[in-house]
Amino acid sequence: MTQRPPQVWAGIDVGKGHHWITVVDADGDPLWNRKVINSEPDIITVFGEVMDTAEHVTWAVDLVDGPAALLLGILANHGQSPRYVTGSKFAAFKKSFSGQGKSDLKDSYVIAEFARCLRRQTVPVPAPPRITKELTLILSHRNGLSVERTRTINRMRAMLTSIFPELERSFDFARSDGPLVLLSGYQTPAAIRRIGESRLTAWLAKRGVRKAATIAEKAVTAAKAQDSAIGGEDLAAELVAELAQKITQMNVRLKELESKIREILSQHPQTPVVLSMPGFGELLAAELLAAIGDISRFPSAGRLAVASGMAPVSRDSGSNTGNRQRPTQYSRPLQRAFFLSSQSSCLTAGTWEREMYLRKYQGYTHDRGRHKKAVIAVARQRVSILWAMLRDGRLYEREYNPREKAADEAQAS
Q: Which residues are CB-contacts of 316 (< 8 A; sequence separation ≥ 6)?
């Protein structure tokens, strides 16, 4: 009987319908590979076969969400701790292999080799708590719907401009539902002139539109400024009405999702800590907590700063030292949460954030980009503060000075 090796590495190229798994030994020789259907019975069967090949198996994946959810859940249920190979590191490592061909089998082998040779460059994939998982899912859905809403608004505005540019300039369709209700019924100058201002006001008010008189007045004024009818006006008007109704439905759904996000966020034990820091609202706090997960993943504030893209990376070579540049590998949701919250806090007069922002802003000699640089400098300090708050479970104290407190305690004793 062939003796089992003490250690093997299993690389998994994750796909929607199926995964490819390749197992390599300590010398990098492939021992086993197979196409695995993304279903629980097949994954469990293959899991048993891989575990039988060695005393210990190190699993490595190239994706940690979406199609990988079932696979990672089964591994976690069986006491396995898979490692994650980030896309940029995988792409760089793959270049060291001969050939330019691409296949799932080759990718799974490269992932296994990466985990074998560069284990310290992989990231552990802990099973996220239920609240973190729910926040991640609903935020992803909400952000996708928000992007689709913006795209639909732009399409509607472009179509409305082609037949009634004066009306398109009169309203901000992204900020108010009233103009969308107007477009669901009336889209052309002739139709708005026929109904008139008083009847249009009553029609809008009947549908619960706020400031119906103001909207009707603007619409009639725009209609009187255009007497010409454009070719294809009737079809374009029909499509504009359809898009306006679709945007209204999206607005309703976004409000429902935001309400659900607040409900889930209220169950997170660290929500009061994050919300106590100026600049964080409920949606930004939800994005931050979903991106951080467990704060123990970051053993220091510097690690959290690196992960959020708020810490520069060095570009030193020989005698050319002291060069710093913006990182390219970081969490976009983390960066967005820290940057937007810091930018908001910089607007509050009498705060250390405002004072630091002005000092940094005035210190940069070039006007281009100095606002962004100053906000990032403030955000870097806030990263350290928030990391300590999450570590200790402590609320934000604007007037807290640890040196003065230590001196007061020493004097009192």
A: 322, 323
Mean confidence (pLDDT) of the chain: 88
For tokens 């300090």, what's the residue?
381
336 in Cβ contact with 281 (< 8 Å) = no
Alpha-carbon separation of residue 179 from 7, 44, 216 (angstroms) = 65, 55, 9
pLDDT at position 408 is 55
Phi-psi group of 313: left, alpha or beta (phi > 0 → left; psi -120 to 50 → alpha; rest → beta): beta
* 396 token code pair: 């934000």
Q: Which residue type does 3 have?
A: Q
Nearest to 93 by CA among 67, 56, 72, 119: 119
Averaged pLDDT for residues 228-255: 93
CA 63 vs CA 125, 195, 333, 375: distances in Å = 10, 57, 17, 32
Residue 376 CB partners (closer than 8 Å, separation 6+): 310, 339, 342
The per-residue pLDDT for range 69-108, each reduced to its tens digit, is 889 889 988 888 899 888 878 888 888 887 777 788 889 9
Alpha-carbon distance of 338 to 311, in angstroms, equals 12
Which residue is it, tokens 């409920």? 282
Residue 128's pLDDT is 74
Query: CB–CB of 365/412 below 8 Å?
Result: no
Tokens of 360: 């940094």
Average pLDDT over residues 113-122: 88
402 falls in which pLDDT band (50, 70, 90)?
very low
Distance between CA atoms of 82 and 123, rounded to whole angstroms?
Answer: 9
pLDDT at residue 326 in the model: 72
- Residue 325 scores a pLDDT above 80: no
- Residue 399: pLDDT above 70? no
Letter string b/e over residues 393-408, b meaning 16 or more CB atoms within 10 A of that residue's CB: eeebeeeeeeeeeeee
